[in-house]
């Protein structure tokens, strides 16, 4: 376990411009300006996260709980450094491993081995690092010679194996998960589960956004509850879960 | 604002000097094109070569030009123009087409632009085959000043990098500009001495339009050295000014909007 990992969020807010078709058009802006037509000043802004402060320290297994549209994925993206908050500050110490959207960077025409390189580079690994892990990744996929074939010839299960193997081959101190990843057939699912458990065990910090109550209970020791972009409660997993279940009336 | 510019510049330079990611991915992009068809990007070279020979001969006859002089001029001009036009087109949609990636994995935005430019430079290298073949058939004198094409290309690439960043961000925000850029490029193509010789308009009022056309200058900085023709120092200065101005605009946009792009996608 890495002791240096830490995440500090101070008054983080994220607002999205909701760009309608008209807002996306420079021409209509131009026409409006020239004809002096004033649009009603409706701010097309959606506040996705609102004034969130959060300390995550090494050893924390944090669950993000909340209904759909509560801001769970947005918060994960902020932690990953994909969204830079419109206000507030984010300080992340440690390498982030974001395990969502695993297929990004994958090319269907490229072979399995090439995709190992592609995905590896895309998530910020160095060439030498990927070359060093190539054999281990290939072994984990159990795809053997099929790795020399283009990805479009794979079944969806095979493709998931490959994607999962590459995504989890690079280590990080801070692991971000948007729902647990379940892949492949029974036997591979077990293996994937073990790999994920290992990663989680090794990680300094785990942040998991999920709706799966049992999973959260088994994995996390802390939880936060999000509601419409606001952090409404933080505490131990059991406290927050019971609060959440009460609210949703289950 | 000053420190933001500095941070942006540092981020760009850090990625430019680390071709590990974008260089490898660009080479892989090209090798994928070879996978799809046996001769890969050479298909475009072939089409380009056919255009150069056919259109070149027709225009040389129409304008009563010496074919041995006109064909190399047209060939190099068109090859460099192809680099400019494809880069600007792909550049203006770069953040939209990489949207899935941008929203899935954190990375400095500039890597997407660098990968696209590296890929187009590799394609340019394929097209240079045409120029070499032309040289074998219709040799023109060689001079050491040919090497000046390298700094000429560097100036062009810096300009394209800056323009791609700025246009890419603009087009991510306003989606109706992309098509305007495509038609604008067609228009510029005819106003730039590629398919016609600058000498043909010398002394006319139209000539000053060529002189202030940045595309004409930038193409000349690569074309004239390759043809072993002397380049006016004023042209070099102008090229440097264009590159500096466009790069400054690119850095400015990058500093101001690089953290906003993910929200626009």
Structure explained in plain terms:
The complex is a heterodimer of chains A (250) and B (265). With 250 residues, chain A is an alpha/beta fold. Chain A is 37% helix and 26% strand. Chain A has 8 helices and 9 strands. In chain A, helix 3 (112-122) crosses helix 5 and helix 4 crosses helix 5. Chain B has one domain (2-27, 42-264). In chain B, 77% of the residues lie in helices and 0% in strands. Chain B contains 13 helices and no strands. In chain B, helix 1 (2-16) crosses helix 12 (233-257), helix 3 (42-62) crosses helix 7 (110-137) and helix 8 (149-173) packs parallel to helix 12. The interface between A and B is medium-sized, with 33 and 25 residues.
Shape of chain A: globular
Return the CATH architecture of the domain at 6-95 and 208-248 in chain A. 3-Layer(aba) Sandwich
Name the assembly state: heterodimer
Secondary structure: number of strands of chain B: 0
Structural class of chain B: mainly alpha
Please give the share of residues in helix of chain A: 25-40%
Percent range of helical residues of chain B: over 70%
Taking Cα atoms only, what radius of gyration of chain A do you get, to the nearest Å? 21 Å
């Amino acid at each position: 376990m890495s002791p240096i990992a830490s995440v500090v969020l101070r008054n983080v807010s994220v607002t999205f411009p909701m760009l309608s078709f008209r807002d996306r058009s420079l021409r209509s802006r131009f026409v409006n300006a020239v004809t002096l037509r004033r649009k009603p000043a409706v701010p097309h802004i959606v506040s996705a996260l609102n004034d969130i402060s959060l300390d995550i320290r090494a050893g924390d297994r944090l669950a993000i709980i909340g209904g759909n549209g509560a801001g769970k994925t947005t918060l994960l993206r902020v932690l990953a450094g994909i969204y830079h908050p419109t206000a507030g500050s984010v300080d992340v110490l440690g390498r982030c491993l974001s395990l969502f959207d695993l297929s990004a960077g994958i090319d269907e025409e490229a072979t399995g081995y090439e995709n190992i390189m592609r995905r590896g580079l895309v998530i910020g690994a160095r060439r030498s690092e990927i070359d060093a892990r190539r054999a281990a990744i290939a072994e984990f996929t159990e795809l053997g010679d099929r790795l020399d074939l283009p990805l479009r010839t794979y079944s969806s299960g095979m493709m998931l194996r490959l994607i999962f193997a590459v995504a989890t081959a690079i280590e990080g101190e801070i692991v971000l998960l948007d729902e647990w990843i379940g892949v492949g057939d029974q036997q591979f699912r077990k293996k994937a589960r073990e790999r994920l458990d290992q990663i989680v065990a090794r990680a300094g910090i785990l942040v998991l956004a999920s709706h799966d109550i049992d999973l959260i209970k088994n994995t996390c020791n802390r939880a936060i509850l999000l509601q419409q972009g606001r952090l409404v409660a933080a505490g131990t997993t059991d406290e927050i879960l019971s609060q959440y279940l009460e609210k949703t009336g289950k | 604002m000053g420190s933001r510019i500095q941070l942006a510049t540092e981020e760009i330079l850090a990625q430019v000097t680390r071709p590990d990611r974008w260089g490898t991915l660009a080479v892989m992009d090209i090798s994928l094109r070879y996978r799809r068809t046996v001769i890969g990007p050479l298909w475009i070279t072939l089409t380009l070569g056919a255009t150069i020979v056919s259109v070149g001969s027709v225009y040389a006859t129409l304008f009563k030009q010496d074919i041995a002089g006109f064909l190399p001029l047209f060939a190099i001009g068109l090859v460099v123009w192809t680099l400019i036009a494809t880069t600007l087109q792909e550049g203006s949609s770069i953040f939209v087409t990489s949207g899935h990636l941008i929203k899935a994995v954190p990375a400095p935005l500039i890597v997407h632009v660098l990968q696209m430019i590296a890929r187009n430079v590799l394609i340019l290298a394929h097209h240079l085959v045409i120029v070499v073949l032309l040289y074998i058939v219709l040799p023109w004198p060689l001079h050491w000043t040919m090497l000046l094409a390298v700094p000429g290309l560097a100036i062009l690439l810096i300009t394209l990098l800056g323009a791609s960043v700025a246009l890419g961000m603009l087009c991510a925000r306003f989606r109706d500009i992309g098509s305007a850029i495509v038609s604008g490029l067609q228009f510029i193509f005819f106003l730039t001495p590629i398919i016609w010789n600058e000498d043909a308009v010398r002394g006319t009022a139209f000539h000053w339009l060529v002189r202030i056309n940045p595309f004409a200058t930038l193409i000349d900085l690569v074309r004239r050295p390759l043809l072993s023709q002397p380049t006016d120092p004023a042209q070099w200065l102008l090229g440097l000014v264009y590159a500096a101005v466009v790069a400054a605009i690119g850095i400015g946009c990058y500093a101001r909007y690089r953290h906003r792009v993910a929200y626009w996608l």
